[in-house]
Amino acid sequence: MILNFQLTNVESKVYSTADDIRKYKNININYDVNLKNPSLVVQNTPFGEKSVLRVEYTFAINYLSPNIGHIRFEGMTDYYSDEDLKALKEKWDSGKAPGDIQNELANTMVANLAPLALLLSKSLGLPPSMPIPVINFQQQAQKKKEDPTFYHG
């Protein structure tokens, strides 16, 4: 479980003018997620003083082909589990970090940073850094009304 998520650095840069950026029809957006430097630290938690696995992260959004800019976030997150965190750190250090924990950390990072990345990309005149849903009322009206939508199964 994630106990703490902290952003320590934000860097963004545009390499082209807004007019030049609008000329491009296809811009490749690359996402780079890096989880690194796991360490064991003692934290005060709602459960008392506990050891947690602190993992540093870097999340970069690169606008490539053409190279028109980037947005980069750095920080750290604290992970707690009842399992042996020392053994988990040793696995991580040997290159065998559990995929489920990496996924939880990366998904927490993206969920926390995606809204900020969208605001930054708009402010910088870059295309949206994440896909934005498109709403089409005409398509909705054409759908069959008897098709139920189940949100909670």
In short:
The protein has 153 residues and is α+β, with helices and mostly antiparallel strands. The protein has helices spanning 18-23, 85-93, 99-124, 137-142; strands at 2-14, 28-45, 48-64, 69-79.
Please tell me about this protein's structure:
With 153 residues, the chain is α+β, with helices and mostly antiparallel strands. The chain has a single domain (2-142), classed as Roll (Bacterial Protein-export protein SecB). Helix content is 31%, strand content 39%. It contains 4 helices and 4 strands. A 4-stranded antiparallel β-sheet has the order 1-4-3-2. A hairpin with a 2-residue loop joins strand 2 (28-45) and strand 3 (48-64).
Task: Map the helices and strands.
Layout (H helix, E strand, L loop, with lengths): L1 E13 L3 H6 L4 E18 L2 E17 L4 E11 L5 H9 L5 H26 L12 H6 L11
Antiparallel strand pairs: 1-4, 2-3, 3-4
Cα shape: elongated
Q: What is the CATH architecture assignment?
A: Roll
* Strand adjacency order, main sheet: 1-4-3-2
Specify the oligomeric state: single chain
Class based on secondary structure composition and strand pairing: alpha+beta
Helical content (DSSP H or I, runs of 4+): 25-40%
Span between N and C termini? 25 Å
Query: What's the total count of β strands?
Result: 4
Question: Low-confidence parts, pLDDT < 50 over ≥5 residues?
Answer: none
CATH superfamily: SecB-like
Strand content: 35-45%
C-alpha Rg, in Å? 20 Å
**CATH class category:** Alpha Beta
Q: At the third CATH level, what is the topology name?
A: Bacterial Protein-export protein SecB
The SSE order reads EHEEEHHH
What is the number of helices? 4
Q: Tell me the number of structural domains.
A: 1
Biggest beta sheet attributes: 4 strands, antiparallel
Report the average pLDDT across residues: 86
